[in-house]
UniProtKB/TrEMBL annotation:
Residues 408-441 have a biased composition (Basic and acidic residues). One of its GO terms (cellular component) is efflux pump complex. One of its GO terms (molecular function) is efflux transmembrane transporter activity. Gene3D superfamilies: 2.40.30.170, 2.40.420.20, 2.40.50.100, Helix hairpin bin. Residues 77-218 form the CzcB-like barrel-sandwich hybrid domain. Residues 1-30 form the signal peptide. Residues 393-407, 442-454 have a biased composition (Polar residues). It comes from Rhodohalobacter barkolensis. This is Efflux RND transporter periplasmic adaptor subunit. The keyword Coiled coil applies. Residues 117-189 form a coiled coil. Belongs to the membrane fusion protein (MFP) (TC 8.A.1) family. Keywords: Coiled coil, Signal.
Length: 454
């Protein structure tokens, strides 16, 4: 006979087995429910439609560009330096003044130079008298020699005196010329027509030869010089078009052209110099302004162009078999709408870039509906709701969908039902309420009819 303890033990084992079975079946049911959840990516059924924005793909012109920075400068900038050293007595022009060729810009104390010129003039007069005397003596001695009245050595002595006198006269004349030039150089003059860009001397300063006193520029033409690394420098060719903009804003203020290219790289920096001449300006150009230059390497017309933000970038890693290094592989895609309800992924082959725009060589065509917002959370074939799209469902279809939604809600767990209701659009919620009211009215009518029959 079985004891009471044995009976209790068997009951306990049966109860434990039953609880374990219930837990296992509940867990499996929960997993199946999760896998069947419409909100699970790749699960069965349809999840809530994601709201997206769609724009049509268009064709535009796009340019491959090399960007750099440079400083605007006048093509003709002349440094004016004094030719003599002495104190500056007058400054006649200042920054921004227009000057003409030969105009006096400053004056240097000229008394010593004027005295030197007068001394040179007096020396010339003395040398002219001596030269005239020695010249006459040489002519007279030449006649005596021709009549064999003096010897060759006596004639040679007279000739030497004559030649020395002539050399001293020429030296005195050269000294006078230099004195006149020095006196003239006490007036610092502009060598060109232009505008005074800078002034580095003041009244009372000691101006010295070789020291820059003024900078004068002819503001008819402007240029900028940029310095590019080898990989960009070797792509530049004379005649390529250039767009320029101030570094503080992006809109173009001028157009230019590559006019000169340095034949070699700088041995210190490794950069190549490129000179850009401005050809057309949209606003005032200021000497010394920092500008961003965009050199157009190539331009493609009627290219399929999309904003970079519309692309989805995927980065995969793999190990290179030969080197054993980890390499990155980037692929790009975009989503287009299919019938305003389905998102379709398109793999892209990209071309040249310009700012935030990029050319699509393959994968998209003009007129495709490109999803530009919300695309990073989509999968291929995902349901979407295009912002601004007009609902055109028939009333019968809407009612059927509402009834089906109500039936689907009954099949869901409380947590799934709550999440599904939260993700419903206002229209779907209104349809569900109307369907529930119709169902309640129908059940109430059936109860009344059943009571009357009884």
């Amino acid at each position: 006979m079985l004891t009471k303890n044995t009976i209790r033990l068997k009951k306990l084992l049966y109860l434990s087995s039953a609880i374990l079975f219930i837990l296992l079946t509940s867990s499996c049911s929960s997993e199946d429910s999760d896998n069947m959840s419409p909100n699970r990516p790749g699960g069965f059924g349809e999840g809530p439609a994601a709201s997206v924005e769609v724009v049509p793909v268009q064709t535009e012109s796009i340019s491959d560009q090399v960007r750099s920075y440079g400083t605007i400068r006048a093509q003709d900038v002349v440094s004016v330096t004094p030719q003599v050293t002495n104190q500056v007595t007058r400054i006649l022009v200042d920054l921004g003044d227009n000057v003409s060729r030969g105009q006096v810009m400053a004056e240097i104390y000229d008394v010593p130079f004027r005295d030197a010129m007068e001394q040179a003039q007096a020396q010339i007069r003395q040398q002219e008298v001596a030269f005239e005397r020695d010249s006459s003596e040489f002519a007279r001695q030449q006649q005596l020699f021709d009549r064999n009245l003096i010897s060759r050595s006596e004639l040679d002595n007279v000739r030497a005196t004559y030649l020395n006198s002539r050399a001293q006269l020429e030296a005195a004349r050269a000294n006078l010329t230099q004195s006149r030039e020095n006196l003239e150089h006490t007036k610092i003059k502009s060598p060109v027509d232009g505008v005074v860009l800078s002034r580095s001397i003041a009244e009372g300063d000691i101006a010295s030869s070789g020291q820059v006193a003024f900078e004068v520029a002819n503001l008819v033409g402007f240029e900028t010089r940029v310095f590019l690394p080898l990989q960009d420098w070797e792509l530049i060719q004379p005649g390529q078009s250039v767009s320029l903009s101030l570094s503080s804003r992006s809109d173009a203020i001028a157009e230019g052209v590559v006019s000169r290219i340095s034949p070699q790289l700088d041995p210190t920096t490794g950069l190549g110099e490129v000179v850009i001449t401005l050809t057309d300006t949209e606003s005032n150009i200021y000497q010394g302004a920092l500008v961003q230059t965009r050199i157009n390497l190539q331009t493609r017309e009627n290219a399929v162009v999309i904003p970079r933000s519309a692309m989805v970038e995927k980065v995969d890693t793999y190990i290179e078999p030969e080197t054993g290094t980890i390499e990155l592989e980037r692929t790009y895609s975009a989503f287009v709408n299919q019938g305003d309800s389905i998102a379709v992924r398109r793999e892209l082959e990209l071309g040249i870039e310009q700012g935030d725009r990029i050319e699509v060589i393959s994968g998209l065509q003009a007129g495709d509906g490109l999803i530009v917002t919300g695309q990073r959370n989509l999968n291929d074939g995902a349901r979407i709701r295009v912002a601004g799209a007009i609902e055109t469902e028939q009333p019968q279809q809407a009612e059927s969908d509402s009834g089906q939604s109500s039936e689907n809600l009954r099949d869901l767990s409380p947590e799934e039902r709550r999440e599904r209701i939260q993700n419903m659009s206002p229209e779907e919620r209104q349809k569900m309420r109307e369907q529930r009211q119709r169902s309640d009215s129908a059940r109430s009518g059936n109860r009344q009819q059943s009571g009357n029959n009884n």
